[in-house]
Amino acid sequence: MNTEIRQLEPQALWNKFADLNAVPRPSKKEERVIAFMKAFGENLGLETLVDAVGNVIIKKPATSGMEDRVTVVMQSHLDMVHQKNNDTDFDFDTQGIDMYVDGDWVRAKGTTLGADNGLGVATIMAILESDSIAHPAIEALFTIDEETGMTGAMGLKGGLLSGGILLNLDTEEDDEIGVGCAGGIDVTATRQYEEEETSEIKIGYKIEVKGLQGGHSGMQIHEGLGNANKLMNRILHDKFEAFGLRISSIDGGSLRNAIPRESTAFVAIDAMKEDDFVAEIQTLETIIKKELKTMEPDLSITASKCETPEKVMDLMTQEGFTRAMYAAINGVYRMSADIPELVETSNNIARVIVEDGDMHIGCLTRSSVESSKIDLVNALQSTFELIGCEVEASGDYPGWTPNMDSSILKVMTKVYEDLNDEKPHVAACHAGLECGILGQNYPEMDMISFGPTIKGAHSPDERAQISSVQKYWKFVLEVLNNIPKK
């Protein structure tokens, strides 16, 4: 399996990536990959430990002549986002990722690839296994659950690591050196509602929004990608007066850190208005597809006749729900006033479930400014409380404040310029990296983030650029060779 991938250069890295991708590793179900990584370290004869929350730490002494250099922590997360196309038959709990080469890119067949953050993990594994790569003492830190709560980083105790420099291998553009990131918080609105028996004059319809690209809800939130939950609400909003539309159920989106690609609603409409309703959906599809034609060329909005649902949401709740969904902020809330082109604060309305008298709306709010994050949380809370929801904010994690005087930043900037004859892009990102959390227990550690070019993370369109991985690998090795003395 994946023999084509194993022939790519650098083979040491791609072989470890193929080994890793054979192990199922969804967030919060990392038992198998933890055991895999523990066995890997022990089989190399290296000091290996698993901490109380499941993070794996493997320590390797410096190579000859590098003993006087600062100890380096190399860090990546073990879990991956599991997303697949609706027509893909795949079980993430039992199957390894099926990869293939597409020109200069490595992709997966109908699923996420796991390059985020598997390429970082594979890089560290290749270096730990090597007997020819020069490096200072290394403490390899493989964290768990980065994608759905960062509980691994949060649970890492002080005192387990002694390194003075941390290299986080979780950035997705090969010309970028990351020096800061956004913090985040989960906002969840829930309530119960009354259901009514569906009137005999109504018929059932299934409405589907699909074909959207989806993507990373931090790194791609500013790109104008369609949000299936917002589009579905646009279709449902104010359709009662014209067609007697009543909502029976909605199932939209999936993970908080993924821009929702698909949404399905089952509704009931007045039978005598059927032709007008179908025509309205077709008109809306034409309008919305025209609006999003550049970013979402494969968008599809369909309405198909189905069995009439037995029960529907009470009308007062329906009106409040659709209005609250319209009012709820989605996308960019504020751009940074200090760093050009950086999103400061955003929200992703990631998951909407309406069924059997229960309503659930899940959001992920991000910001590099704590006060702005709380401001947006308050706005969302106010919106949903107006329709009687209970709103919970949970899973709060801090951002990572840039340090432009970082010693390792200066080293890496020079190394990058020497290798590529151009300056790197030194930037903060709107994704959630673990550096800010790790810095709470290791405040003196000098941190930096970088990685190869990965596109479409958190979606089945995820792909890793082969030539970029080769460029990145050379950069990693040269950085290790230039770690300053203690």
Describe this structure in words.
This protein is an alpha+beta fold. The chain folds into two domains: 3-182 and 399-481, Zn peptidases (Aminopeptidase); 185-397, Alpha-Beta Plaits (2-Layer Sandwich), CATH 3.30.70. The chain is built from 13 helices and 25 strands. The strands form six sheets. Strands 9, 11, 13, 15, 16, 18, 19, 20 and 21 form a nine-stranded antiparallel sheet that branches. A hairpin with a 2-residue loop joins strand 4 and strand 5 (105-108). It is elongated, with a radius of gyration of 24 Å. The model has no long low-confidence stretch (mean pLDDT 96).
The tally of domains stands at 2
CATH fold name of the largest domain, please?
Aminopeptidase
Name the CATH architecture of the largest domain. Answer: 3-Layer(aba) Sandwich
- Helix/strand-derived category reads alpha+beta
Span from first to last CA? 44 Å
Radius of gyration: 24 Å
Figure out the total of helices.
13
Q: What number is the mean pLDDT?
A: 96
CATH homology group of the largest domain:
Zn peptidases
Count of β-strands: 25
Q: Provide the CATH top-level class of the largest domain.
A: Alpha Beta
Percentage of β-strand residues: 25-35%
Main sheet? 9 strands, antiparallel
As residue ranges, the low-confidence spans are none
Shape: elongated
Estimate percent helicity.
Answer: 25-40%
